[in-house]
TrEMBL record:
CDD domains, per database record: CBS_pair_Mg_transporter (cd04606)
UniProt keywords, alphabetically: CBS domain
PANTHER family: MAGNESIUM TRANSPORTER MGTE (PTHR43773)
Record-annotated CBS domain positions: 276-344, 345-405
Name this protein carries in UniProt: Magnesium transporter
Length: 409
């Protein structure tokens, strides 16, 4: 073993490789078992694997730790399930309050684990922060051993380390990681996530889980999160709530966002109007290729939305003026920056009506190999766009996310 001691906060997100150098995944947590007469014994790591999700890696399989990465001889392909008595050091221990022998309160900000023998690891030193003594800065820090502090079972636990470990995950993976936490811990972390991040994560959960988390939030916070969701996802979620709370949240949302959601709620779930999002990229016919490329580069647009630009007459927010056509991203790359979009319209792409069935939308997208299709009203005003992910959500079984969550559980 190349390193005998390592702090666990530095392990979060560390790459895991096999002896041949092939990447296996990333470290998401450290699993330990408390002992009555000694510091907790480390039994393994939770590793995020692209192939199998969160899996367990026995500490005895780790052959090297160093340089921000681990080498392991083998990783199980079985989904990690926390057993009774096991503690997740990042998710459940870091951030907790403790009491030093002199009675001073402190917060456990990090801890080290040390190798005592081949495959035998245990918690070693605790990195603690005492309360600050002045109005500025942070409190002083100190090191202590596990037995030198009193651990209160009910002590509050901060979420900083866990939030940091979720930060670099894709929304679907972050949703999976959040659902792996104990119920109370999941709600604590959800409460501390930024509105935009929580919105992205909720969009990747089953409706039951979405409602469960939304019900745990105060109305004002829930409305803020709904503001950050895609309008079609927010509409789907509000449709599952009791009518009274749905109306309360809509009244608290940003008026423009609420207007989009109300419009979507008026359409049947099995229609183009019920599938679409109301926020496509819309430009005028005299806008240039350079302007269009600047729009599709913006990070807030999902790849499917950024695959094409809709061109309409004014106004340029849905419902727009008359829909003129679409220009696909690939075509934008073939023309000079000063070319006008009105000369580049794809005349083969016909929009669908808001009343068209989801089956018709699916057939249209499959027939023309589209990742998105515009949606217009009877006056040919653009009201939204259906993307491939909207269609996939519709054609998959209604409970497909719940089935995935059940597999993880």
């Amino acid at each position: 073993m190349s390193a005998a001691t390592v702090f666990v906060a530095r392990l979060a997100g560390a790459g895991v490789f096999d002896p041949a150098g092939e990447r296996i995944g990333k470290v998401r947590d450290v699993v330990a078992v408390p002992r009555a007469d000694a510091s907790p014994r480390v039994v393994g790591l939770v590793v995020e694997s692209r192939a199998s999700g969160r899996v367990f890696l026995s500490i005895g399989r780790v052959t090297s730790i160093g340089g921000g990465q681990l080498i392991a001889s083998a990783v199980s392909d079985r989904r990690f399930r926390q057993r009774g008595g096991e503690r997740l050091l990042l998710a459940e221990v870091l951030g907790r309050g403790v009491t030093l022998r002199d009675g001073t309160a402190a917060t456990l900000e990090d801890l080290s684990i040390s190798e005592r023998g081949p495959g035998e690891w245990e918690v070693d030193e605790l990195f603690l922060r005492k309360p600050k003594t002045g109005p500025f800065g942070k409190g002083p820090t100190t090191l202590a051993h596990w037995g030198d502090v009193q651990h209160e079972p009910g002590a509050e636990q901060g979420t900083e380390h866990l939030l940091a470990s979720l930060d670099d995950l894709a929304a679907a993976d972050a949703a999976s990681a959040l659902l792996d936490l104990p119920q109370q811990r999941m709600m604590e972390v959800a409460e501390d996530l930024p509105d935009e991040r929580l919105a992205d994560i909720l969009e990747e959960m089953s409706e039951d889980r979405q409602i469960e988390i939304l019900d745990s939030l105060e109305d004002d916070r829930a409305a803020d999160v709904l503001d950050q969701m895609e309008p079609d996802d927010a509409a789907d979620l509000i449709a599952q709530l009791p009518a009274e709370r749905g109306e309360t949240l809509l009244a608290l949302m940003d008026p423009e966002e609420a207007e989009d959601v109300r419009m979507l709620l008026a359409f049947g779930a099995d229609t183009a109007g019920g599938l679409m999002t109301t926020e496509p990229i819309i430009l005028a016919s005299d806008a240039t290729v350079a302007e269009a490329l600047a729009m599709v580069r913006r990070h807030e647009f999902a790849p499917a939305l950024a695959a094409a630009v809709c061109v309409t007459l004014p106004p340029y927010e849905a419902p727009t003026g008359r829909f003129l056509g679409m220009v696909h991203f690939q075509r934008l790359l073939r023309y000079p920056p000063n070319e006008r979009l009105g000369t580049l319209l794809d005349e083969q792409i016909e929009p669908v009506l808001v009343s068209d069935t989801a089956a018709e939308v699916t057939r249209r997208m499959a027939s023309y190999n589209l990742v998105s299709v515009p949606v217009v009203d009877p006056a040919r005003r653009l009201v939204g766009i259906v993307t491939i992910d909207d269609v996939l959500d519709h054609v998959l079984p209604a409970d497909w996310r719940a089935q995935e969550e059940a597999k993880r559980g």
